[in-house]
Protein: asparagine--tRNA ligase
Organism: Upupa epops
Amino acid sequence: AGRLRVRELLGSPEPLGEVKVQGWVRSVRSQKDVLFLHINDGSSLENLQVVADPSLESRDLTFGSAVEVQGRLVKSPHGMQNMELQAETIHVVGPCDTLSFPLKIKRRHPLEYLRQLPHLRCRSNTNGSLLRIRSEATAAIHSFFQDNGYVHIHTPIITSNDCEGAGEVFQIETLKEARESAEETHFFDIPAFLTVSGQLHLEVIAGAFTRVFTFGPTFRAENSQSRRHLSEFYMVEAELSFTESLQDIMQVMEDLFKTVTSTVLSKCPCDVELFHKYMAPAQKDRLERTLKNKFVTISYNEAVEILKQASQTFTFKPEWGCDLQTEHEKYLVKHCGEIPVFVINYPYDLKPFYMRDNEDGPQHTVAAVDLLIPGIGELCGGSLREERLPFLESRLQRLGLTDTYQWYLDLRKFGSVPHGGFGMGFERYLQYILGVENIKDVIPFPRFPHSCLL
C-alpha cells in the first residue's frame, strides 16, 4: 500500500487502491453497523474521514491516539468531502489517555489556554493552521527574493556589533564564566551578543553581490511585555546596491508584502479563513483593501502636522524631533484611509549613524522610511545608507565610534556605491494578515510556563 498524506488523499481526483495513512485521531463515532474516524496528520486543516467495520474498534482507539490505517480511497457519498477511506486495518501506534489529555474533543480552546501548553498546542486546529501559514509565508519570501535576483546570505547570530546602537542586546557568556570572576579569560576575546540585525553584514556582501537578503532569528533585550513585541523573532532583511532612490527601497517593501500575502491567501485559504472567521472577522476586508491599493507616502514633517491637528488626545504629545509612538502610527494609518503608509525623511538625530544625510537645511533629516500598517503600526524600517566617506567619518567621530567601525569606513574607501535596504519583522507581518491580537500567538513556542522550553 502506498503511504500518502491526508492532504493528498483529500485532493485525489479519483479513487485509489490500497493506500496507507498515518496520523492522529480527531474524533471517534461508533454506531451499530459502522465505525467513523476523523484523522489528521498536520498536512491539512480538514480531517480525513475513515469508515470501518465496528470490529476494528479497540480500547486504545480514542481521541488523540496515533494510528496507521490501511484501506481503499473511495468517493464519499456525503457532500462535506470528496473522498473517504474505507479501512481494512487500523493499528493504534500510540494510545492517548483522553481523561488527562489537556485538549478536549470538539472544543475551541482560547488562545490564552493554548499558550500554556507549548508542547501540545500544535495539535490544535488554530496552531496547526498557523504553522502551515508560517511555512508557506517563509517559502514565499524566499521565492520573492530569488525570483528578483537576490542572493540569500546566512548572517551571524553571534556578533560583536549592536547595529542600531540602542544597547538592547543579549550578551553571551558560558555558564562557567557566569559563575567565575569577571577577571577570568572569556570564551570570546571581545564582548559578544545575540544579533539584533543582520544589516551590517549584508552591507558587506552587497558590496560584491549587488542584491542580497537574509531571513533569520534576531533578538532584542527590550523589556516589553506588549502584544506586539518579542525578545526572539524572525527578521527579513535586504540590501540593494546601485540605488540612489528611497522610492526603490519602498517599492521592494510593497512588492514583497503584496506578493507574499497573495501567495499565502492562495495556498492556505482554509487556514487563513479559520483566523478571519473566528478571531478577526473584519481582517479579510482590510487585507483586500491593502492588496488592491497603492501604499500612501507622507513625510515625517507631514506626519507631525497631521498628529498636531488631530482631535484625538495622545498619551505622548507629537512634536517635531520626537520619535513616533505606536498610538501615532496607528492614527496616521487611520487618517490615510486604513491603507499602509510610508513615512519618510526622519530627523537626523533620531536615526542610526548609517542612514544617508539629506543635507536639507535647518531641520536636517535622513533618507529613512518606516512602513506603517493598520492596527499594528511599524512593520518595516529602512533607509538609504550613507555611502560618502567624509559624511560617515564625521558622524562616527562625533559619536566616538570611529575605532569600532573602522571596517565600515573601509567599505566606503574601496568601491563604494549608493545603496540601501530594509528589514521586516516576520511575526508582526503574520500578526497583521491573520488579525491576531497577541504576537505570542503567531510563534511556535511561547516562552512560558515550561522552563525546559525557555
